[in-house]
Design goal:
Elements lengths: L1 E5 L2 E4 L4 E5 L5 H14 L9 H10 L4 E7 L2 E13 L4 E11 L8 H15 L5 E2 L7 H10 L14
Length: about 160
């Protein structure tokens, strides 16, 4: 399978890789993958009501998620929201999460998920994707560099309100 990442980047992936849009009915599977993602990044994850909140966000179209399947089994996901850059005065797609189970890495699934998100961005008229990754995640940084993404030096903050 050939996937268009950007105007000049094509990814080859295995025939048993399927990426599809997730819906509210996928919330339990997605919640499991989110918990694994949080554990991988060593961040707190409260699973209470998580699947229900995901299902509601998907139902309300506040969030887009793509589920990555290999041999019919869910092994990863990408999630994104539409945002707006004040500095560019343009909409962009914020890639909130990209996660693959360890056994699924390095086999084209990440590229397939990124291609799905990139196509969504093109389809809705966004000019770019933006995301962040922890500075210790050398595998992700190498992957994003190989895609041709431009790295920005910024710190990410959160503030409970």
């Amino acid at each position: 399978m050939r996937l268009l990442m950007a105007a000049d980047v094509v990814a080859e992936v295995a025939a048993d890789v399927v990426v599809r849009a997730a819906g509210p009915a996928d919330a339990a599977v997605l919640s499991r993958l989110c918990a694994a993602h949080a554990a991988y990044e060593h961040i707190h994850h409260d699973g209470a009501g998580h699947a229900e909140r995901l299902a509601q966000a998907l139902h309300m179209h506040r969030l887009r998620i793509w589920l990555g399947l290999r041999g019919g089994e869910p092994v990863g996901y990408a999630s994104a929201t539409l945002d707006f850059s004040t500095l560019d005065a343009q909409p962009f797609v914020h890639l909130d999460c990209l996660y693959l189970e360890p056994a699924a890495r390095g086999q084209g699934m990440g590229r397939a998920l990124m291609a799905a998100v990139a196509q969504h961005a093109r389809d809705i008229g966004a000019r770019q994707l933006q995301w962040q990754t922890p500075p210790w995640n050398a595998l992700a940084i190498g992957f994003y560099d190989a895609l041709g993404a431009r790295r920005l030096d910024k710190c990410r903050y959160t503030l409970a309100v």
